[in-house]
Amino acid sequence: MVFADDATPIPEGKPQVEEWFKTHVAPLAARKATLDPALVAAEAAPRIITVNPKGQAQFHSLTDALNSVPEGNKKRVIIRMAPGEYVEKVTIDQEKPFITLVGDPNNMPIISYDGTAAEYGTVDSASLIILSDYFMAVNIVVRNSAPMPDGKRKGAQAVSMRISGNNAAFYSCKFYGFQDTVCDDKGNHFFKDCYVEGTYDYIFGSGTSMYLGTHLHAVGDGVRVITAHAGKSEQEKSGYAFVHCKVTGTGGGIFLGRAWMSHPEVVYAYTEMTSVVNPTGWQENKEASQDHTVFYGEYKCKGPGSHQANRVHFTEDIDPPEAHRFLTLGYIQGSKWLLPPPVL
């Protein structure tokens, strides 16, 4: 019998990653004894509903499809999204767990809206807001279509997706925005083979998340920062682990992260960094005291942007035992909840 294993690290060799995933994130049938009982019960008889903005489906909007899910939902609901653009601001309420959005990998549906911080507040400007637990998205594009901030318009930051629920997984999804693209707000999250595009703080929040095989792309010019993790104390135990990822962008001078709050934790492992990464790696802290409270690490990364000779002095020198924590499903307690994408 195969079980998810919180202790076996992701292999250094990229060709071995898929086999590691298949072994340690096996389907439900092989892991009922280790998963959360509520999740096992929810997966017993999934309900599949369809949505298509052009018709020929049960619902014409994603919002209407979600409204059909009862509060207190206890069964997996798989919403099959037809190709097309869904111009709507979508919120999945806390009382509606076990929702899965699935699109066509060859013609991915797009959730798009132009909300901004000026109108909604930063975190509530998101085109897709997930407040519920046990969410999953597969082959979905989420975009905030508001224009790039120009430094003059107040409240121009615009979130693509906000994930505030616990135990969420994203497979082969794409997130487009500029400032504050993904609000990785709180809870345990897993991103695999995704794409995130933005300018400044384009992954931010207090989530505890693993990004595996994810492409991080910076657009625009001037100062760009990938992460603004919002750890507030040493006891919080949250952070972002980027494993076998790729960092690209336009121009140069991209920072891997900055200290939005006092105790950010961000680690890049086995990640390819192109020359767009600033040689110092991480943005200087605004307060000197943060030099002793931030945790920024790089482990066996490659590419011209990975050279550590000129990194800021507060970058962690991670050894293999310490790196292990960021390379295992234990970082997100994955053996209790993480499942592979559904086979439909």
Question: Could you characterize the architecture of this molecule?
Answer:
- This protein is mostly beta strands and 344 residues long.
- The chain has a single domain (19-144, 156-335), classed as Pectate Lyase C-like (3 Solenoid).
- It contains five helices and 26 strands.
- The protein has helices at 17-24, 37-42, 62-67, 117-120, 320-323, and strands at residues 47-51, 77-81, 85-87, 90-92, 99-102, 110-113, 128-130, 136-138, 141-144, 161-163, 168-171, 174-176, 182-184, 188-192, 195-198, 200-205, 208-212, 215-218, 224-229, 239-243, 246-249, 254-257, 265-269, 272-273, 295-299, 315-317.
- It has an eleven-stranded parallel sheet.
- It is globular.
- The two termini are 23 Å apart.
Features:
8% helix; Pectate Lyase C-like; 26 strands; eleven-stranded parallel β-sheet; single chain; 344 residues
Summary, kept brief:
Pathway: Glycan metabolism; pectin degradation; 2-dehydro-3-deoxy-D-gluconate from pectin: step 1/5. With about 350 residues, the protein is mainly β.
Main CATH class: Mainly Beta
CATH architecture: 3 Solenoid
Number of helices, counting only DSSP H or I runs of 4 residues or more: 5
What is the arithmetic mean of pLDDT?
A: 95
Counted beta strands:
26
The largest sheet is: 11 strands, parallel
User: What count of domains describes the coordinates?
Assistant: 1
Helix content: under 10%
